[in-house]
Design goal:
The chain has about 450 residues and is of the alpha+beta class. It has a domain at about 245-445: Alpha-beta prism (UDP-n-acetylglucosamine1-carboxyvinyl-transferase, Chain), CATH 3.65.10.10. About 35% of the residues lie in helices and about 20% in strands. The protein is built from 15 helices and 18 strands. The strands form five sheets. Strands 1-12-14-13 form a four-stranded mixed sheet. Helix 1 (about 10-20) packs parallel to helix 2, helix 3 (about 80-90) packs parallel to helix 5 and helix 13 (about 405-420) crosses helix 14 (about 430-435). The N and C termini lie close together (about 10 Å).
Amino acid sequence: MEFALNPDRERMDLTLLMGLLVNGRTVLDDFAWASGSERFAQALAEFGLRYELHGHQLVLDGRGFQYALPSMLPYDFPEQENVLLWTLASKDSEQVYTLAAEPDRDGIEKIVAVKAMLLKYFKVNVETDAPAKFVFRFAPEEPALKKDSLGNVPFIMRNRVLLRTLVRGEYVSFEERSLVHDQWTKMLMYFGVPLRYEGRGMEQLSEFERRLMMAQGKKIERTQMTELAETRVITGRDYYVPGDTTEATAFALLTTIGKVPKGNVVKLLNVDLNSTRAGALTCFKRMGANIETVTRREKFGDVYGDVEIYPMEAGKRLQGRRFGEDAIATSLSDYAFLAVAACFAEGETILRIPKEIRSEMRVSNDFLAENLRKTGVEVGVYDDGLVIRGMETIVNGSDFDGGDSPEAGLALSVLSIALENDEPVKNVDAVEAMFPGVVEKLKQVLVAEAPANEGKE
């Protein structure tokens, strides 16, 4: 059974952004909109992006670094999209922007949340700071570039720093211990931006530097260095946005834990396989899932390909594993899928969350655990993550609720389909909005074997 996935939204956003910064035309082949991406394109149109759909191609006409500044600052988007739009606007430190809402409770709470997000990433000069109205100018200076406990620059901040450096014609360099979500970095390189992106370790040190570090008792670790030089112009190129990794994770999970008819191999076409984003698929493999990349394409500056998932062999189970913060950092979007997989695994699975987000994820982990316990599985919620002891056979479990998280809702939908429940997961509308049509596609995975062409998307 073959399935085409919705395009990866994060990569789609970055591609549309690049289309604005290019001097000239960018053509996207085999194009389809990711959920919400057309609205993001409309916001970029306020900066001067022109786009037009021609059959299966989207043609982008960019303005280069001479893009326009909007009179109203957009802010009603997810965090990473807001930050990209605000970074474009921050090029001009004289433009005055206003964030305003109705002066009722909802309006005040909204402006407070947006203001907190803004101040997390930018320095601003405040002119008016009222409960439902915030008037400011972007400051020309940059906030300090802080790394997380893993030695990385959080990817939303990294994307922002590279974008701001790019549009202001400046220079920046920094090192990280590992990378998470480096799609923007690789896209910049593909479009010809003078950016160095390379690993550094023992081989980059002089003999004196090595001896000095050894004498000081310092451990020589391999790091990733990013260096962006002044960029004068970016020229257009063809590009392709591959399939969504989270959707691929959903298919991999269902094929592994569900009652898939014998001989039904699930093939996913053109999946985004960027290793700093697709960590959950690697975690599934470590647990014993049978996932194989059958076609690997290194094009457009990154990696994508066709993936085949095979059902578990009779008598075999997934194996519980301990996943540290490094592994989870590349799997955060798909954290709930790892938790569902752990419910079926032999032994104990530990999912450790990076320190910086433990507090904000505690509520969502409590909610996820409450749902998973409906299957009878033991789930422990701790400050640093989840501990799950799987069961050999799960026959009960229903009335799942995805809450306000489309990713968690999709993971619980996979669990519900695997348990052959008739009723949908509560708040499945949020899943459908983010991943159009995916639940109906997933249901096809468990149908009886069909003729060769049936079930293709």
